[in-house]
Design goal:
Family: Belongs to the glycosyl hydrolase 65 family.
GO molecular function: carbohydrate binding; glycosyltransferase activity; hydrolase activity, hydrolyzing O-glycosyl compounds
Pfam families: Glyco_hydro_65C (PF03633), Glyco_hydro_65m (PF03632), Glyco_hydro_65N (PF03636)
Protein name: Glycoside hydrolase family 65 protein
Keywords: Glycosyltransferase, Hydrolase, Transferase
Bound molecules: beta-D-glucopyranose
Number of helices: 20
CATH topology of the largest domain: Glycosyltransferase
């Protein structure tokens, strides 16, 4: 066990789904679950392969409705590799005695390895070591290496290596009643004696996908002269290599795979492209070396070292690893968003939600080019967002709650409650707050990078159109002389309507309204920052008038924020809901994370109760510092006292089931300063979300990327008190117990800043290069840092007064 590996001993059929998700390998272009090469899809194994942005739509008749869903398509299974001794059965873990079995995901090198020893029904004992990678340097390549050694037998074996395009989307049990055949086979043929090729096309989006596999066997590094046969079916092609093996002699089998699609750039067509890619790809050892080198570079930028961190350190690395596999630097050249469940499974159909809010803080400070690309995914869908707004009777751009290929609303109209077996109307598209999140992400990206070009050409337009949307949502309430935003849902998905109302939607969700007040101001700020010329161009193109800008300003000062019992109300009228009997339900059901489903199955509804699935109002304290909130409340003309924060936290803490993995991240952060033990407990629970599948079966359907990135951000922000405000990178470390050691590198305004915290010391070094100095504050003291400088601070145990004890030129030039 090391901080760099995820290790499993023994094969456990029940755990396989979870292992497959956690051992997924990917490179941002595509990812493949950690299913065994020899396994067939079924109840135990699910060898899914997903292309970033590889969607397709299908219609299904369900509960008397025709519904259309867009899914991230399960692409042909390129893993397929198996063997059989002459007269024996194809290798199948369920049919042999497993003598030894270890599975290791190496996070450092991005290689998945299985070490196996087994005995078949005829008493043949075999050692098999399998290694696999999805190439991080060339995103079109993947490779498998098998080392097979007959321990007590000799004879002829047949190795079968296939490309299987007969796959459907069957990874989520709840979706099984929905149409799931997305691929049309086009061709399956040999390219030469050791290479096969498969071409398929999605049946609605017409995405053509081609795969090629080159399979070769070696003994003592000499190519084996195998007898070769082909097996061909529509959508399937396999190559069977037969040759002799000798007891004690290792045979090495290499399968090198290439994949291209009709969306790729710089190719003629995918079938031709894979032929070239696979022919040019080096052997496994060469691919493995170049792959490891890119991972080394990624880790140099992205690692976060927690000395003595043990299991937490390992999990943090696992989270960084999966984040980088989903949105690697390769997405910079793609038109893709960040799917909430990674490219690791089919839950939520690979859709893109507001989870970016939890993911971008990590990327902004490491590889902001990725954030920029992911924000451009939103920018390209501005036209569709404008259409959505117009059709709903609003102005500007209204982004969908769930987004896929085109940016239309992909939220389902009906969802299945597995507890009751009923299909229920789904109103989650009313979570308009996703629009505030996109605007927030634009601004935070800009603050960390100072990327003026992005702001001028994309960011400002996004902010303006989102501000315009919100302004058109706000309605004047003459009786209280405030603006309302009605008929929406907040992040808490347990509440989609008032129990006394017939129509879905809630009024004045506090989180939404405060975010809107903030966004309206940022739209103004963006117009000011981009310079007079560009401002004029943009305002003319978008027909933004001074009156409109003045209106945003007016609304940003007069939005309504509900309160009750001295706390922020999640939404207006929240106080009229009934208290939920947490203890009774807990003792009745045990796991009540998804009490909405339990209640619906009982004929009741979560809408009646003061019970939230996830942090909603508390999001405000997650996203804004106390100073920013104080400014925001002041801007709105509400009295803000610091006590409002702990009171509101305490109130909702007791009324949240954490039915979303995002929830613990938020709660851990908001308690970081006031209740460190509870905050750490929540952080530890959040760290366990996927590795221990705390929701009891959801991780096998895909990882929770927001929670994964959120934990890393929590550690980096929690320990250092990191925030960017007014062009200053601010640290406010609070170390009640001396920290064993935290080491990380952040990119800020184009510079790398190396941060080490140990005991009561904090060291900051700024990388060489660049003419401009950066402004960094520790507590409230602002320091101007020049390139190559290093500052060391010291603080009394438990104190907050950080003093400089050393200032020098840094020798580091990272
Ligand atoms: C949460 C949402 C989240 C979605 C995708 C849901 O369970 O309630 O906040 O965006 O999962 O992760």
């Amino acid at each position: 066990m090391s901080d760099w590996t995820l290790d499993y001993s023994g094969f456990d059929a029940h755990e396989e789904g979870l292992r497959e998700a956690l051992c997924t390998l990917g490179n941002g272009y595509f990812a493949t679950r950690g299913a065994n090469e020899e396994a067939e899809a079924g109840d135990i194994h699910y060898p899914g392969t997903y292309l970033a942005g590889g969607y397709n739509r299908l219609k299904t008749q369900i509960a008397g409705h025709e519904i259309e869903n867009e899914d991230l398509v399960n692409m042909p299974n390129w893993l397929s590799l198996t063997f059989r001794p002459e007269e024996g059965e194809w290798f199948n873990l369920m049919a042999v005695d497993i003598l030894e079995y270890h599975q290791t995901l190496n996070l450092n090198t991005g290689v998945l390895q299985r070490d196996m020893r087994f005995r078949d029904r005829q008493g043949r004992e075999t050692i098999l070591v399998s290694q696999r990678l999805v190439h991080m340097q060339n995103p079109h390549l993947a490779a498998i290496e098998w080392r097979l050694k007959p321990e007590n037998w000799s004879g002829r074996i047949t190795v079968r290596s296939a490309l299987d395009g007969r796959v459907i989307n069957a990874g989520v049990t709840r979706y099984r009643e929905l149409a799931s055949t997305h691929l049309t086979p086009l061709s399956a043929e040999p390219l030469n004696e050791d290479t096969i090729r498969l071409v398929v096309e999605t049946n609605q989006s017409h995405l053509r996908v081609a795969q090629a596999a080159r399979t070769q066997a070696y003994i003592d590094e000499h190519r084996v002269n195998a007898e070769c046969q082909l097996v061909q079916e529509p959508g399937y092609i396999a190559q069977e290599l037969s040759f002799d093996v000798t007891q004690g002699q290792e045979v090495r089998i290499e399968k090198v795979v290439a994949m291209h699609t009709s969306r790729d750039r710089a190719i003629s067509e995918p079938g031709l492209a894979i032929s070239h890619s696979v022919a040019q790809a080096g052997p496994f050892a060469e691919l493995s070396a170049s792959h490891a080198q890119v991972w080394e570079h990624l880790w140099y930028r992205c690692d976060l070292v927690l000395e003595g961190g043990g299991r937490s350190q390992k999990i943090l690395r696992l989270h960084i690893f999966h984040l980088l596999q989903t949105v690697s630097p390769h997405v910079v050249d793609l038109d893709v968003g960040v799917p909430a469940r990674g490219l690791h499974g089919e839950a939520y159909r690979g859709h893109i939600f507001w989870d970016e809010l939890f993911i971008f803080p990590f990327l902004n400070f490491r590889i902001p080019e990725i954030t920029r690309a992911l924000l451009r995914y939103r920018y390209r869908r501005l036209g569709e967002a404008r259409r959505l707004a117009r059709e709903a009777g609003y102005r500007g751009a209204m982004y969908p709650w769930q987004s896929g290929s085109s940016g239309r609303e992909e939220s389902q109209m009906l969802h299945l409650n597995p507890k009751s077996g009923r299909w229920i109307a789904d109103h989650s598209h009313l979570q308009r707050h996703v629009n505030a999140a996109i605007a927030f992400n634009v601004w935070r990206y800009y603050e960390v990078t100072e990327d003026c070009e992005f702001l001028s050409y994309y960011g400002a337009e996004l902010l303006v159109e989102i501000a315009r949307f919100w302004a058109s949502c706000a309605s004047w309430n003459a009786s209280r002389k405030r603006y309302d935003i009605c008929g929406v849902m907040g992040p808490d998905e347990f509440h989609d309507r008032y129990p006394w109302a017939t129509e879905p939607g809630l009024d004045n969700n506090a989180y939404t309204n405060l975010m809107v007040a903030w966004v309206l101001r940022r739209a103004n700020d963006a117009l000011e920052r981009i310079g007079a010329e560009r401002r004029q161009e943009l305002c003319e193109t978008l027909a933004v008038t001074d009156q409109e800008v003045a209106m945003w300003e007016e609304i940003s000062h007069k939005l309504f924020v509900p309160f009750h019992e001295g706390v922020i109300s999640q939404f207006e009228g929240y106080e009229r809901l009934e208290e939920f009997e947490w203890k009774r339900y807990q003792s009745q059901y045990g796991d009540i994370h998804r009490l909405d489903r339990l209640l619906e199955a009982e004929g009741d509804t979560a809408n009646r109760y003061k019970a939230s699935k996830q942090a909603d109002a508390l999001m405000l304290f997650y996203l804004f510092s106390a100073d920013e909130l104080s400014d925001l409340f002041q801007q709105l003309g509400y009295t803000f006292t610091l006590e409002l924060i702990p009171r509101t936290i305490e109130y909702y803490q007791q009324r949240t089931s954490h039915g979303s993995t995002l929830s613990r991240i938020v709660e851990s952060w908001v308690l970081a300063r006031s209740d460190r033990p509870r905050s750490l407990t929540l952080l530890n629970e959040a760290l366990e979300s996927d590795i221990a599948d705390v929701q009891g079966g959801t991780t096998q359907e895909g990882i929770h990327l927001g929670a994964m990135a959120g934990t890393v951000d929590l550690v980096q922000r929690g320990e250092t008190g990191l925030v960017v405000r007014d062009g200053v990178l601010r640290f406010d470390p609070c170390l009640p117990d001396p920290l064993p050691g935290l080491h990380l590198r952040l990119r800020y305004h184009g510079r790398w800043i190396e941060i080490t915290m140990k005991g009561n010391r904090m060291t900051l070094s700024v990388s060489e290069g660049g003419a401009k100095s950066v402004r960094i504050a520790v507590r409230d003291q602002i320091h101007s840092f020049d390139a190559g400088q290093r500052l060391e601070f010291h603080c009394q145990p438990g104190g907050t007064d950080w003093r400089i004890i050393n200032r020098s030129e840094s020798t580091d030039s990272s």
